[in-house]
Amino acid sequence: MSQIEESPLQSPISVLKGAGKEAETSLAGIGVFTVSDLMEFVPARYEDRRLKSPEDAAHDEKVTIEGTIQTEPSVMYYGKKKSRLTFKLLSGPHLIQVTFFNQPYLKKKAAVGDTVTVTGKWDRHRLAVSGQLLEAGPYRRGADFEAVYLLRNAIPLKQFRKLVQQAIDLYGSLIEETLPESLMRQYRLMPRKDAIRALHFPESQEEMKQARRRFVYEEFFYFQLKMQALRKTIREQSGGISQKYDLAKLKALIDSLPFELTKAQKKAVNDICADMKSPYRMNRLLQGDVGSGKTAVATLALYASVTAGFQGALMVPTEILAEQHAKSLHDMLEPFGINTALLTGTVKGKKRRALLEALERGDIDILIGTHALIQEDVVFHKLGLVITDEQHRFGVNQRRVLRTKGENPDVLFMTATPIPRTLAITVFGEMDVSIINEMPAGRKAIETYWAKEEMLGRVLDFTEKELQKGRQAYVICPLIEESEKLDFQNALDVHAQLSSHFHGKFTVGLMHGRLSGDEKEAVMKSFSANEINILVSTTVVEVGVNVPNATVMIIYDAERFGLSQLHQLRGRVGRGSEQSYCMLIADPKSETGKERMMAMTETNDGFVLSEKDLELRGPGDFFGRKQSGLPEFKMADMVHDYRALETAREDAKTLIDSPAFWHDPEYRHLRAVLTDSGVLDGEKLD
Ligand code: ADP
Ligand code: MG
After folding, report:
1. Rounded CA gap, 447 and 455, in Å?
2. CB contact at 8 A, 569 and 584
3. What pairs with residue 118 in β-bridges?
4. Out of 290-294, 371-375, 497-501, least confident range
5. How many Å is the maximal CA-CA distance in the chain?
6. Would you state the pLDDT for residue 438?
7. Closest ligand 1 atom to the C-alpha of 289?
8. Radius of gyration of the chain (CA)
9. Closest ligand 1 atom, residue 575 Cα
10. From 75's CA, which of 48, 105, 491, 643 has a CA 20 to 30 Å away?
11. Which ligand has the minimum distance to the alpha carbon of residue 239?
């Protein structure tokens, strides 16, 4: 049920003169049904029709010039329907030859002595203009920029412009303001009415800019308003649980750690614990670079939940990771009497049944696993906290399924892929965010080098020196798009090569996606125990694996990886106290490829790299796959308009949190928008 009243702006375009059945059908094809659709149709670009003196124009550039006609315009016919209209035009000191092809009727508009304005292509060598547009009279001020629309041949551009003009003339006065007055005033935004006109018929570049600024803010503000309303709904109306954890016990666990938590870790633990204790539901994202200590934070949170009498779950994207996490959580928590268990796809039959029963009885405190955790028959006794690691690898739906397990458990998402701030507040706009932006003390920055393939020998010599010191190395094989088979073959080749190179000196292991869970575990175990000195691997090793003695990371064909992935891979080393090295073997052909390699050698900061990645790839490609959940904006650009995005977010948040928003008549329209989009009735977004 819509609460937004029908306005004449919602009339079908057929109310306009010149919009017949045919136009109506064609325009429906590009999403234009109503007068308001027409007025909100965003121009793809503007034609610059500012008057230009020919000497300022480049050859072949489009120019608009004004002048008086010096010679009798004459039409010459040739071929079947072809014609040429020519005359000489005096523009300033220049006598210019003007030619119009196949528009003989223009002769009526042109006579000797007339002042006219001509737009066309400038030929610098012949001092000639190949005309496209002829207008009687001197140049008309206020027509400097002409909107051009992407109409996909629906109707002719000229007709479209006329319809827009008519719509604005007849209905423009009915356009209502959609932004709160206080914000309009604060940012000096152009009123919607004026902005719509300026969008289509700007009188100056400044006006064009101001109209755009208004619409960009409006788009972001509305988007953020929905996000913030959703955040509030998830928090307050979904009946969260208040987890009264045992602070003394939590402190005892923290004291038992072999290290002091960093300031950022402490802050994150505090954020999370406050969320858990509150009657609201936690919906938080924990971002931190590889090795910044997120898992430690997660473990503390899970333990806190158990001390409050609940169960916890930790979901990770791969089996290897699940196994590693299960082991480290077990080691850390067993002395405190906590039962942990591992559930992955390889846990089957009797073992699985027994595990599920124990879980339902409440005998298991913390369950760690892959997405096997979200299968229907996995039933918890009393689930209090769900943590998912490497969050953006899970689809939006998986995010939601997890949220629905148990009685509205608190939810924490973790990601080690630093996401640029602008993307984070867009894609995860409905969440609270904690950021771990400092590394544990004593970590040395990983030294990164970029080498061409012919330098591989030197890279291996260097590696050998490290191995002689007792360290270990990873070698990551080229990734071949969409061909698991070739990935696998590559790994075999590299493994064979290195085995013979280091024959009799060091052992070379092999890890790839075709190994079974047991085999992978055996390989990882040997590598952890330094029985394998060099581990050749496909990217399965990418996430979370922890072998502190490894100090060398070699990445073959590094140009095939994105910056974020390279950074992830590099994060496998530098986990101990020794100096670590990363060697990128790459021969990038493209400029951006080179820039990526340079960026890697220049910084170890994942957040800096993520911003760079976004800059090089653009928001659409940043997450690689389609499931990114990025919203589409008509005018706004998340990267370039990020300041407006942040401002709009703050404004939306403040407004949603203010009591006035929920009853003041001033915000009636905004509330109606939220109801209409379903945000206020629950989770219908995304
Ligand atoms: P992440 O999950 O963010 O990649 P981890 O929690 O796995 O990071 O931590 C990486 C390594 O650093 C682990 O060996 C962990 O024990 C250790 N670690 C975590 N926090 C600290 C800290 N505050 N000081 C020293 N070492 C830490
Ligand atoms: Mg809670």
Report:
1. 17
2. no
3. 65, 134
4. 371-375
5. 102
6. 87
7. 3
8. 32
9. 11
10. 48
11. 2
